[in-house]
Sequence to fold (712 residues):
Amino acid sequence: MRRLVARCAVVLALIFGAAPTLAEDGYDLWLRYHPLSAAQKADLPSSVYAEEGDATLRVAADEVTRALAAIRGEPVVRTSGAAPRAILLGTANTPRVAALKLPLASLGEEGYLLRTATVHGQPTTVIAANRPVGVLYGAFALIRRMQLGQPLSGLDIVDRPRVKLRILNHWDNLDRSVERGYSGQSIWDWWRLPDAKDPRYIDYARANASVGINGTVLNNVNAKAESLTAPYLAKAAAVADMLRPYGIKVYLSARFSAPIELGGLKTADPLDPAVRAWWKAKADEIYRTIPDFGGFLVKANSEGQPGPRDYHRTHADGANALAAAVAPHGGIVMWRAFVYAETDPEDRAKQAYTEFKPVDGKFADNVLVQVKNGAIDFQPREPFHPLFGAMPKTPMMVEFQITKEYLGFSTHLVYLGSLFAETLNADTFAKGRGSTVAKVVDGSLDGHRLSGIAGVANIGNDRNWSGSVFDQANWYAFGRFAWNPGADPQAIAAEWAGLTFTPDPAFVRPVTQMMMRSRQAAVDYMTPLGLAHLMATGHHYGPGPWVSDLSRPEWNPTYYHRAGADGIGFDRTRTGSNAVAQYAAPVARRFADPDKTGEDLLLWFHHLSWDRRMADGSTLWDTLVRRYDRGVASVDAMRGQWDALRPFVGSERWQHTASFLGVQAREARWWRDASIAYFQSVSRRPLPPGTAAPPHTLDWYKAQSFPFAPGN
Ligand code: BDP
Fold:
C-alpha cells in the first residue's frame, strides 16, 4: 500500500509538473521561497529585466527570478526588452536604469535603491545601485519584502551598510573539525578541494549575501601554518572563485610563526628584514592565486599562540609587518585583542586594555584591532569591552561569537540579537553621551575609513547548517547587525521568523517574544547577576563553578565568582582590581557603585555579602537562587509556547526544535541544581521558602564527566 501511494505521488508530480513535497529540514534557511496566497501575489511583477554582462548582476537576476517564480507559483519571463510589470535591475551602466536618472550618489559602493517607477509606460519595480553588489543586496531586500507579503507599490527605499567589513570567522581546522562547532564538520572539504567544489558553497554564498556579509575567514584563529602553503592556497582560491560573484571576499587566519615553520627562518621577529621579506613574498604569492584576497586575521600571544611579544615587540610591530606585506595589494590585517597571559597576575578583564591602549596610533593604516564584545570571553553576559572608545586612533572591530560555546551549544534556544544589541547600544562616553559601541565600530565616532564587525560562525555541514533551526536566526541577526549596528533585535527576530516559517502574525508575534526572552533565560540558569565563566573545563559543557585546580588561575571558575563565607563576586572597584578605571569616567562611576551598577552586572564588578539587601529587600543569596529558578521557569514556558505554535510549523522542524527544547529544559535544571548545590556549600544559607533543594549531592554534580562533548 505504501509503495502504491508513493508511486501515485510520483505520477501526480509528473502530471502537475511539481516535485513531491519533501518535509522541510531547514536547509533553505530564510531563503524559503514559498508560494503566497492568490491575494498576496496578485500585485507581484511577472517578469525580470536585466542585462547580464556582469557575474554579480547575473546572480542577482537569477535570484530574483527564482524567488519570484516560486512565490508566484508560476514561471517568470526573463527579458531584455520592454515588459509589463517587470522588475528592472542594474547599475548606472545599465542604459534603462541610467535613463531614470535616479539619485544613486549617496548609496556608496554597496548601497541600493528600490523604487516603483514607470518605464516605457509600464509600472516597474527598480533595483538600482552604483555597483553590481549593491544591486545584489537590493535584490535580496526586495525578495524579503515579497516573501513577507509586503506591498511593492509606491516603493522608495534607500539603504546602505554602515560598516565596511562584515565578516564571518570560521574556526574550522584543516582536518575538518571545527573548534567550538556544534553543527557537524566544517563545510570546507579541504581534502577534496580544489577539484571537488561542493555546490553547497553557492548556497552558503547566497545566504551570506542575502544578509550583507561580505567576507569570510576560512580557517581557525588557532591557525596551522599549512593553510598558507601553495596547495592550501589553491583550495582557498577555489572557494574564493565561488563566493566572488556574491560580493564575498576570502581571508585567512595567519600563524605568526609561519616564517619559521614554512620559511625555515630562525625567527619570526616582525622587525627582522628576512621575516618581513618572507611575509611580503607570501602575500605576493597569495594575491597571484587569489587576486582579491581580503587579508589576514591574527591571534597572537594568546592561549599559547606565537606572537610579537615572543621577541619583545609590540602588537603594533607584529600587525604592521603583515600589514606592509598585503598593503600593496589593498589587503588588510585584523589583529585580535583577545590576549591574556598566565604569567600576568593582573585581572584578566584588564589585560587586553593594558596591552593595547598604549599602542593606539601605532598601527598601520590597513590594520583593524578586533575586540571581543565583552572584557573577558563571550560569556552569556559581560559589560562591553573597555577598549571600545579607548583607542580613538585605531579602527576597532567588534567580534561576536555566533556559535554558542558558552550559551548551551546548538541545543539551547538562545537568540543572540539581544546580546548584539546590548553591546552595540552600550554607551562608552568616550566623547560624551551617545558614544555608543556601535559608533566606535562603524567608524563614525572617530572618523575612520575602515570599519568592521566579525562573527565566529555557527555553520557546519549539518543539513540545517547551524545545528538547530533557531541558531540560523543568530547567523541571520549577525548579518543584519553588521549591516546596521543600530538595528532593532526584535524587528530582526520577527523578520527572520516570518521568512523562516510563516509571516502570519499569529505565529510571528509569540515566537518573537519567545526569542527576545531566551537570552535572559540562559543568563539566569547559567550565570545570573553578572557571574561569568562557570562552565565545566575544556569543552565548557554544563556547570563547573567548583573547579579550582586548573594550572592557569584564570581558567578556574572560582577565579571569577570568588565565592566564600563572606559573600560572592569579583571586586573590580578601587578596593579590588580597579578594572572600572579602564572605562570613561561616567561609566566607571556607575560600575564602581553597587547601587548603580544594576543587577545584570552586579557580581561582575562587586564582591558582596550573601546577606546584602537588594532593591526589593530580599537578600543577595535569595535573589541568586530565585534567578536560577526564573531561568528554569522561562525554558518551561518556551516549551509551552512552542507546543502552541505547532500548527504553523512543518513537522520536521517543529519536532527537531521541540526535542532540543527538551534538552534545554533538562540542562537548565542541571545548571540550576548544580550551581545551587555548590554555592549553598559555600554560603551556608538556607534556601528561600518555596524553592526546591537540588535532587543530588554536590559530589554527584562534580562527578559528571563528558569526555566526548563536541567542539573541544
Ligand atoms: C575561547 C575559546 C577558544 C578560542 C578562544 C579565542 O574557548 O576555543 O580559541 O576563545 O577566541 O573562548 O581565541
